[in-house]
Task: inverse folding
């Protein structure tokens, strides 16, 4: 499925099933996906981290396309399709800590806001479908506050 | 109004007005509503003290009633949803900034900086309002500082 450029019709044109299905249904669903697809997840309790622990999120405020699950890998946000996304974290800690953004378990951006009691970062990524993003705490003994959140929003489909 | 997933048709089906109104009109309206955003700015240098909310006197964009000149410190969410906010504010010195929710709690602690350049994705309910609260006395914010908000997804 993809966006199909719309064409003007003239009086007397027949909108048959093929036109309806191809031009309207596919395009509308494609638009809806790009407009609405995303997830916003939070922590209901604090998390004491050892060095290199991954920050977990257990509460789904929004999850339109299974970006997150709370049982097996609650630390992950997994792309549903290929294409650019906005990825955002807000993670306060009790002591100054640094965090590393991981993509498929590999370091993507290390300690990318220095060392602080507030990790607040928003970036664009262009992951392939099935790519998962996690946030690694680099500081032993830092406690991530309840209410910390992570968000992912699909911005477009394809072009990766 | 809510998004309705359109259904495919087979040859010979009649597209009635009812089908058209729901599957075409409503869904297009729904999508147009989701292109919802505001950008406001500081007009003139602004002296601030701890406890002040930044005033945004200039409305660069507001297509969904986020900002009102009579209460120009606030951006008010029109829908339950996930929003992206973006801030660019220059101060005369290191200044503590927080995003406050409904004037009752801190939603995002933005730290203490002289130049605030920050984006965040936040969750708001309809009619929630956010303000940029100052936590440091005797600072001046530079003319043109900006605060933008865009609806990313309805919840």
Result:
């Amino acid at each position: 499925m993809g966006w199909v450029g719309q064409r003007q019709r003239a009086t007397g044109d027949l909108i048959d099933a093929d036109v309806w299905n191809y031009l309207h249904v596919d395009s509308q669903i494609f638009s809806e996906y790009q407009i609405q697809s995303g997830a916003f997840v939070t922590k209901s309790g604090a998390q004491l981290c050892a060095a290199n622990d991954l920050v977990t999120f257990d509460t789904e405020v929004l999850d339109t396309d299974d970006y997150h699950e709370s049982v097996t890998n609650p630390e992950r946000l997994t792309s549903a399709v290929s294409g650019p996304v906005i990825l955002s974290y807000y993670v306060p800690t009790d002591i100054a800590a640094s965090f590393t953004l991981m993509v498929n378990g590999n370091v993507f951006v290390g300690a990318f806001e220095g060392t602080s009691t507030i990790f607040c970062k928003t970036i664009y990524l262009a992951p392939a479908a099935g790519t998962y993003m996690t946030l690694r705490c680099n500081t032993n003994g830092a406690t991530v506050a309840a209410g910390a959140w992570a968000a992912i929003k699909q911005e477009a489909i394809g072009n990766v | 109004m809510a998004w309705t997933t359109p259904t495919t048709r087979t040859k010979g089906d009649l597209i009635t007005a009812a089908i058209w109104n729901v599957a075409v009109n409503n869904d297009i309206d729904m999508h147009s509503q989701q292109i919802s955003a505001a950008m406001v700015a500081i007009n003139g240098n602004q002296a601030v003290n701890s406890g002040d909310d930044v005033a945004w006197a200039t409305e660069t964009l507001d297509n969904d009633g986020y900002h009102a000149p009579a209460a120009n410190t606030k951006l008010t969410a029109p829908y339950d949803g996930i929003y992206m906010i973006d801030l660019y504010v220059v101060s005369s010195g290191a200044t503590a900034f927080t995003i406050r929710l409904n004037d009752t709690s801190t939603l995002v602690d933005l730290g203490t900086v002289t130049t605030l350049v920050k984006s965040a994705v936040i969750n708001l309910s309809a009619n929630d309002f956010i303000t940029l609260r100052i936590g440091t006395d005797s600072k001046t914010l530079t003319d043109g500082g900006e605060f933008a908000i865009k609806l990313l997804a309805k919840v």
